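#structure-requests
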Amino acid sequence: MEKHHKFMNEAIIEAKKGLDEGGIPIGAVLVKNGKIMGRGHNRLLQKNSSILHGEMDCIENTGKLKGEDYKHCVLYTTLSPCEMCSGVILLYKIPKVVMGENETLKGPEDYLIENGVELINLDLKECKNIMKEFIKKNPEVWNAEIERVV
């Protein structure tokens, strides 16, 4: 579990970067064999984007890997992946996702599990608090975003 916390801390750093940029604080890192291959954070607001969720930004920033490489990766994300991000996880056959929490938003976790993805929820207070503070200060932004993903 210690290694999971190490990499989740990196995802939290990404979430805080996004917040500092005026965005939604969700971060992610992609790890292969104990090495961070890519990192990213939610950039919907910063880039006026429809798809740059934390996981999507992370995968994009990783660059092209071989299909076989993704099968040896773990995706760390501060929040449960939504339907779009879950689709990318399945598309690239990423076998394990470690999330910081799923209380703020719970994506299609059962669907991921049914398709062979191992999910680990660290249920971290820090991840919950980052999102709670953001939502408290930006309810209209969060409500507009959640309207698209729920």
